[in-house]
Specification:
With 79 residues, the protein is mostly beta strands. It has 1 helix and 3 strands. It has 2 domains: 38 residues; 28 residues, no CATH class. Helices cover 9% and strands 19% of the residues. The chain starts with a strand and ends in a 30-residue tail after the last helix.
């Protein structure tokens, strides 16, 4: 089951919610019960989708930075 993050538009809390499918719309805020939720992009999604192109660094330079934020995994440590 995928995990999605939702932000409650009533109380502002961000929660991880397990869904069987994207069609499962009967979800509510675990804190206040509101159905007024907005799906947010999770950090794990950004890491998976935000990798630098092969042969480049996280910030787009052709050479790796001598000091952070660039790591040996081609991902920016500032993110």
């Amino acid at each position: 089951m995928p995990i999605y993050e939702y932000k409650c538009q009533e109380c502002g809390k961000v929660s991880e919610i397990f869904l069987r499918s994207l069609q499962d719309k009967d979800i509510g805020c675990p804190s206040c019960g509101s159905k007024n939720l907005e799906r947010v992009v999770s950090a794990s999604y950004l890491i998976r989708m935000g990798a630098a192109a092969p042969g480049t660094t996280c910030c787009g330079r052709t050479e790796r930075c001598e000091t952070p934020p660039c790591s040996t995994e081609d991902s920016c440590r500032r993110r």
